[in-house]
Design brief:
This protein is an alpha+beta fold. Helices cover 38% and strands 18% of the residues. It contains 37 helices and 41 strands. The protein starts with 22 loop residues before the first helix and ends with a helix.
């Protein structure tokens, strides 16, 4: 399990390391390194450093004396970016805004009001969130409620200004002071740790001089503005969805102020029951007050959602351990989105209308979306119903049922259950209360200035004693009647004066009461109780309307309350370069100090790495006997310092986290179980069933990511190196099942002599292991092997008998081991080379049956409690069981593992079978990467031997970007399939020669600087395949051959001959200069393809065994070559016939490596035509034999002819051998000269590499294939030796023919060679003749079978005749083979038809036999049933007859009774 490192005493960052630290200077340098130009330095922000108390204590709060412009501090990040709903007009300092008094950071520590003075800011969603979430935190963490939320934090409640530092030390309970210089430090949580954010005191104002930051009723307090500026900085890293119309995405103020993990769950109406169940389990429940209690509040109190200790609010590790162990704590909130009028979907608009109506019922407005706190649930009425009066006793006797007679069926009314949720918000009825207060202020003026003859009614409170009855009496009918008569008496005047005085007094009283109402309402608007503590307005929301009002449920998890945690941070290289000047390199230590719980200091681990592409891979391992819940918090940094225009042009992509089940033993990808997409911080709850689980977690973000996992159950989180060692052990469910089986077996052993408890213990054992009768033997063998392992030896005869008695199996479990130990010559001498007769076999069977029967009887006797044998067996079992108890878990695991491995289907009987897919074992093999300049290298090649069937997965870890592994079965030369250049999981079976693992790498043009290459073999169980050598080696010798590509008709790139002195296993690789060429690399043996492989630009044959030729085959091959060299026909045909007829054991191997171009995929540019023609001329010159003879004079020809005649006395064989050796040496020297020249890499070329072990490099020779050239030369030399001067005569004949053509064109006589005409003149005449005869078209008369026209002479006719005969012979051979094959197929078909007919007849006979048996059984059953029915009928007739007789005997007794009963019925 991962452990939590200790918190570092001080940070090693560059920002705060120097004593004379100037934030402006330091951050400006970071800005310059991060931005592209000077104009962008203001928009690019440096990453905020991690929080460190020592750095804050050493902070310089005053201006530097040496700086000239240091009157006020200016934020190096520039002015903070406000929401779009707030238009900034000017920026002012507090000293410019507050004139009457000196500004302070905090003035009223008892309470604060952020709603009354900030009504003009409520149009901004971000400002509403800041105000509401600060109120929520104050409500949750403050201890000034009726009952304290946490007794541990009552001394230090949370205060929002504790996140601000200025002219103070970073200690508990600090108080920030006003800094005239204008520099303040804000402590906020961001990207997995607390950050130090520096702000100035510049305040924004609109054109009406309204402050655009939250403020209290006391305008001189600065803490709301400063805290809001820091929050706005962090919120600027969030990216809202473009079409959502919101100011921010998923940023939460509570997460920044506390570090709590925000889990967001969308609310849907079809999940109402699940939501209610969750809230009932998470937040407190409302309870009716008891009788006699004077408190009006409920006994329900808020759950301990977070300790309000100042240290913990800052997520600092407490120094003292917690006094009580509590579970994970959380705060539950709900949010809704504001009305988006640009929405075009009708369904969404309908939901918005319903939501707006529902919110209005509870005093909320959809235009002012914010976060609300859920405090408790209620499933009972708010007021207890009155008790019913006692029912008198006389009414309890047979109460009458009240019935209501109707003409239609009346359905019983469905009573809706009481399900309400209490919601707290500072904006409940906020607008209505503000408007009411405003109306009350102006009510008296309006009332005095309004007069009418109509009856007026004044709105008064219910508790007022005086009611305006006088106004009603003034407009009574009597008064109207008196006004009409115009007669006024003195008494009436007095009465009117008294009424006027009374009305004036009433008006004064109304004005005073109105003022009192305004004051009370203003006090209510300030949301303060008499004690001065901030309160939230509360209301009850029906569960049915809860999903209509709110769209998202936010659950804030407190990380410190989880027992196990782990965090990981990844930054791109571009961001990490900026981190070099900031303390972000210490993110690990800070995160650990934040998340480490006090009660388990070694349960947290943090990983900090860098990534180049923004993608990171982690693995999560969980093994638990109970369901596991893990909170996964994912934070993504998607933008950093971009301007608004840059965000609009190229909006950043959100970060993604995906978690899905994973297994190294399969390539099948499963569906993800968790998906998180966010632009800020978001969490999700991962719920896993009991058992072992491995999840592959992939994350991606443009700039940086942070993953934080919290759980109450242990888990392992990290890379492969961290997780894979845990998978070699057995799962907890496997160990538990094994322990249960072994303990049940132990109970059987302990009560083996107890006749009462033994049957129940045996049944419990059978129920525990659950194997069937067919698999019982496997369990018995496992018990035997377990006792052998516990004792460390083989069992004695008494112990073996005790085990057989315990298991009830008389079979000798240890027969295999004893048979392996007994010598093979233990049989008598006469039995070694003979087979037993039938009588002997029958006698042995009788003896074995008798012995088995005796053993079974002995076992049954010993298994019966109370016998002497049973006591002896019980004593032996107790002694053996003592050695098992010493290491019970180990032997239990061995017992169950033996059952699972050797029993088919036993693993499916237990729930731990699901854990087997994640159980692996692995072994690493590492070699050093050679430092070479080649673009291709062979890194690893070795042979592994597999002893039994096992599933293997090889995986490579290479410092090179392109590295491929090949696995070849040496027996079949088949390569294991690969998927995406990775060897797929494969079931390896034992073979004779093993499996060869070959690893190749492509380095390109980069220089290899070394490193370690590692291969990991992953299997299901041990033992894994063994290496053929003690240690792997990667020292190879490479024979490299290069050449230019010359296009030809057969598309062959090159051919090379391979000669080996002994059996050799090299690797052959071929590569072309162009990477898009499809090539085929083949190895031929006697022109027959043995193996081949295809590729694009590069192809490899990982391993091939070149067999050496023995002495007999070499001698026979030389003799065949000598016989074939006598004539041209023998050279072509004799060698092939001899090779086909050669026996297999003395076969002459003739290997050739050939490379071909496929699909005409290597086209050449026209600019290379001259270069290609030059290469072809060089090849043509290599084929010339008599070039020096034909170029000389006739005299030299005659001299050579005389010399050749004088040498006729020499043996022909010696002469031919010398010519062959001379010609061969000449070709070899030419080819070596061509290969030795340096190639022009700009021209199309190829490279052939043959890689061998360094110790076997001298056993193989690779050279260019010149066999065809040698055959042509040998053929020409044979013709010349058979007919000396043939080449010269042919040359003279050609010249004579050309001269005849020339003479015919000029009208002269033909000239011969004896005329002595110079060669140059003849050539000129021939060329002029050809030019004069261009107008004649000879193409219709010339065959186009050859690239160039060729004169048909006797030699050509002979060749054509020979080719036709060869074709006819081959066709006849093929035809004969086809006829023979057809005959065999016809015979096979006849045999198969006959066999099928016989089988069908046999099946029919069997069916008829079974049918006859069935019919017979049915007839027997039918006859038996009929007989039974006939017997029953006879019995029934006899019974009826007896009954009838009895009735006839007693008729007089039955009739009176019948009459009496009939009378009663009347």
């Amino acid at each position: 399990m991962s452990k939590t490192p200790k918190k570092k005493a001080s940070s090693t960052s560059l920002v705060g390391s120097s004593p004379g630290y100037s934030p402006k200077k330091d951050t400006s340098s970071a800005v310059a390194s991060a931005s592209e130009g000077p104009g962008e330095q203001k928009s690019r922000l440096p990453l905020w450093p991690e929080w460190n108390d020592n750095e804050v204590n050493a902070e310089k709060w005053e201006a530097v004396k040496t700086s000239k412009d240091s009157k006020f501090f200016e934020d190096p990040d520039g002015k903070v970016e406000l929401p779009a709903a707030l238009r900034v007009h000017t920026w002012k300092r507090p000293s410019e805004h507050i004139v009457n008094k000196t500004p302070v950071v905090v003035e009223n520590e008892a309470a604060f009001d952020l709603s009354s003075a900030n009504e003009h800011l409520l149009s901004s969603e971000l400002m509403r969130l800041i105000i509401s979430e600060i109120y929520i935190l104050q409500k949750v963490c403050d201890t000034g409620e009726d009952k304290p939320i946490s007794t541990e934090t009552s001394a230090n409640p949370w205060r929002p200004w504790e996140h601000i530092y200025s002219l103070c030390k970073a200690v508990k309970g600090h108080m920030p002071l006003y800094n005239a210089y204008g520099k303040y430090v804000i402590k906020l949580y961001w990207m997995g740790c607390w950050r130090k954010i520096v702000v100035d005191d510049m305040l924004p104002f609109d054109k009406d001089n309204n402050l655009l930051l939250p403020a209290t009723m006391n305008q001189s307090e600065l803490w709301p503005m400063l805290l809001a500026k820091g929050i706005l900085k962090v919120a600027s890293t969030d990216v809202p969805v473009l079409s959502s119309g919101r100011e921010l995405g998923e940023f939460t103020v509570i997460h920044s102020l506390t570090g709590w993990i925000p889990e967001m769950i969308p609310l849907k109406y079809w999940y109402t029951e699940q939501i209610w169940k969750f809230l009932r389990e998470t937040i407190p429940k409302f309870q009716l007050e008891e009788e006699g209690s004077e408190d009006k509040t409920t006994t329900a109190e808020l759950m301990t959602v977070k300790d309000s200790d100042g240290n913990e609010i800052k997520s600092e590790s407490p120094s003292e351990p917690k006094s009580r162990d509590i579970g994970p704590q959380m705060v539950v909130c709900a949010s809704y989105q504001s009305l988006h009028l640009l929405e075009k979907r009708t369904s969404v608009l309908t939901k918005m209308a319903d939501s707006s109506e529902s919110l209005r019922q509870y005093g909320l407005s959809q235009l002012y979306s914010h976060l609300v706190l859920l405090t408790c649930t209620r499933d009972c009425p708010l007021v207890a119903p009155p008790k019913l009066p006692p029912v008198p006793n006389w009414k309890r006797i047979r109460p009458r049922k009240q019935t209501n007679i109707t003409d239609e069926p009346k359905e019983p009314p469905v009573q809706k259950p009481e399900q309400f949720i209490e919601v707290c918000s500072p904006f409940i009825n906020f607008r209505l209360m503000a408007m009411a207060a405003h109306d009350m202020e102006q009510g008296a003026v309006k009332r005095r200035g309004y007069s009418s003859n109509l009856t007026s009614f004044s709105e008064m409170d219910d508790n007022e004693e005086d009611h305006p009855q006088n106004d009603i009496t003034q407009n009574s009918p009597n008064s109207l009647y008196t006004t009409e008569n115009n007669e006024v008496t003195a008494e009436d005047k007095k009465k009117e004066d008294e009424k006027a005085e009374s009305t004036s007094n009433l008006e004064k009283e109304r004005e005073e009461k109105d003022k009192e109402k305004v004051q009370s309402n203003s006090a209510l608007l300030q949301s303060q109780d008499p004690s001065g503590k901030p309160l939230l307005q509360e209301t009850w929301v029906d569960l049915h309307n809860f999903t209509k009002c709110f769209q998202t449920l936010l659950i804030f998890h407190k990380p410190d309350t989880y027992a196990h945690q782990c965090a990981s941070a990844h930054f791109q290289n571009s961001v990490s370069s900026r981190l070099s000047a900031t303390p972000l390199s210490n993110a690990v230590a800070s995160t650990q100090s934040v998340t480490a719980p006090a009660r388990q200091p070694d349960s947290t681990a943090t990983v900090h790495t860098q990534s180049t592409d923004g993608k990171c891979t982690h693995f999560l391992f969980v093994d638990n006997l109970l369901p596991t819940e893990i909170v996964i918090c994912f934070s993504a940094l998607t933008q950093w310092g971009e301007s608004l225009e840059e965000k609009r042009v190229s909006p950043p992509r959100p970060g993604f986290l995906t978690a899905k089940p994973f297994s190294w033993k399969t390539i099948v990808s499963e569906l993800p179980v968790v998906q998180i997409e966010t632009t800020s911080s978001k969490a999700a709850l991962l719920t896993l069933p009991p058992g072992r689980h491995v999840l592959h977690i992939q994350t991606r973000a443009p700039l940086a990511i942070h993953v934080h996992l919290c759980s109450m159950s242990p888990f392992v989180f990290g890379d492969e190196e961290t997780v894979m060692p845990y998978l070699d052990k057995e799962s907890l469910r496997f160990c538990e099942q094994a322990t249960l089986i072994l303990r049940a077996l132990g109970r059987v052993v302990s009560c083996f002599s107890d006749p009462e408890e033994l049957p129940s213990a045996t049944k419990e054992l059978e129920k525990t292991h659950g194997v069937g009768i067919q698999q019982e033997r496997v369990f018995n063998e496992a018990v035997y092997h377990m006792f052998c392992s516990a004792l460390g030896r083989k069992l004695t005869s008494e112990e073996l008998f005790a085990v057989q008695t315990l298991t009830g199996d008389p079979s000798p479990h240890g027969s295999n081991e004893r048979a392996a130990d007994t010598p093979s010559d233990g049989n008598p001498e006469g039995w070694n080379s003979r087979q037993a007769t039938n009588q002997e076999i029958q006698a042995a069977s009788v003896l074995q049956a008798g012995w088995k029967g005796y053993l079974v009887r002995e076992i049954l006797t010993a298994a019966r409690p109370g016998t002497k044998e049973n006591l002896s067996v019980t004593k032996t079992l107790d002694e053996m069981w003592a050695s098992v108890v010493t290491d019970l878990e180990k032997h239990a695991i061995a017992l169950l593992r033996h059952m699972v491995v050797n029993g088919d289907g036993i693993a499916d009987l237990y729930p731990c079978r699901e854990d087997e897919c994640n159980r692996i074992t692995f072994t690493d093999y590492s070699v050093a990467v050679p430092e070479v300049t080649n673009s291709w290298i062979l890194i690893f090649r070795d042979v592994f031997h597999v002893h039994k069937n096992m599933l293997l997965v090889p995986k490579i870890y290479s410092p090179l970007s392109v590295c491929t592994l090949h696995v070849i079965n040496n027996d079949t030369l088949e390569e294991i399939p690969r998927v995406f250049n990775r060897v797929e999981p494969h079931l390896y079976t034992p073979n004779k020669s093993g499996y060869t693992f070959v690893a190749e790498a492509h380095a390109g043009n980069t220089l290899l600087t070394g490193g370690n290459w590692r291969m990991r073999l992953i299997g299901s169980r041990e033992p894994l395949p063994e290496l053929s050598k003690e240690t792997p080696s990667n020292i190879f010798t490479v024979k490299e051959l290069k050449g230019y590509y010359i296009p030809n008709k057969k598309n062959i790139i090159c051919r090379h001959v391979v000669n080996v002195s002994s059996d050799h296993n090299p690797t052959v690789q071929f590569q072309t200069s162009q990477s898009d060429v499809y090539i085929k690399l083949s190895i031929l043996d006697n022109e027959k393809e043995v193996t081949s492989n295809q590729g694009k630009g590069h192809v490899i044959i990982p391993i091939f065994c070149f067999l050496a030729n023995n002495g007999a085959s070499l001698a026979q091959a030389g003799a065949r070559q000598d016989r074939g060299g006598l004539t041209a026909e023998g050279t072509v045909t004799g060698g092939k016939e001899g090779s086909d007829q050669h026996p297999a054991d003395t076969l002459f191997h003739k290997y050739c490596i050939q490379a071909e171009v496929l699909r005409e995929s290597w086209p050449l540019d026209e600019s290379l035509a001259s270069f290609i023609q030059k290469l072809r001329d060089m090849e043509r010159n290599e084929m010339r034999v008599f070039g020096d003879i034909l170029d000389g004079t006739s005299a030299s020809v005659g001299t050579e002819q005389q010399n050749r005649d004088s040498q006729k006395s020499a043996p022909k064989s010696t002469h031919k051998a010398k010519e062959r050796e001379k010609d061969k040496d000449k070709l070899t020297s030419k080819s070596s000269f061509t290969m030795g020249q340096s190639l022009d890499t700009t021209k199309p070329h190829w490279t052939l590499r043959v890689v061998s072990d360094q110790s076997e490099a001298g056993k193989i020779e690779v050279k260019k294939d010149t066999e065809r050239l040698e055959e042509i030369r040998a053929m020409k030399l044979a013709w010349e030796s058979a007919e000396p001067g043939r080449a010269a005569k042919a040359h003279q004949t050609r010249l004579h023919y050309l001269k005849e053509l020339q003479s015919n064109a000029e009208g002269k006589e033909p000239t011969t060679a004896e005329t002595g005409t110079p060669q140059s003149q003849q050539n000129g005449e021939i060329s002029s003749l050809i030019q004069n005869r261009i107008d004649i078209d000879y193409t219709p008369f010339i065959r186009k079978s050859l690239p160039q026209p060729r004169l048909k002479d006797e030699v050509l006719e002979e060749e054509q005749r020979r080719e036709r005969s060869e074709k006819l012979q081959s066709f006849r051979l093929i035809w004969d083979n086809i006829l023979e094959q057809r005959k065999q197929e016809k015979t096979a078909r006849r045999d198969m038809m006959k066999h099928q007919l016989e089988t069908y007849i046999g099946f029919q006979d069997t069916v008829d036999e079974y049918r006859q048996k069935m019919l017979q059984a049915r007839d027997a059953y039918r006859s038996r049933v009929l007989e039974e029915q006939s017997h029953k009928k006879k019995e029934e007739v006899s019974v009826e007859a007896a009954e009838q007789g009895e009735l006839e005997k007693t008729p007089s007794q039955i009739q009176p009774g019948a009459r009496k009963s009939g009378g009663k019925r009347k």
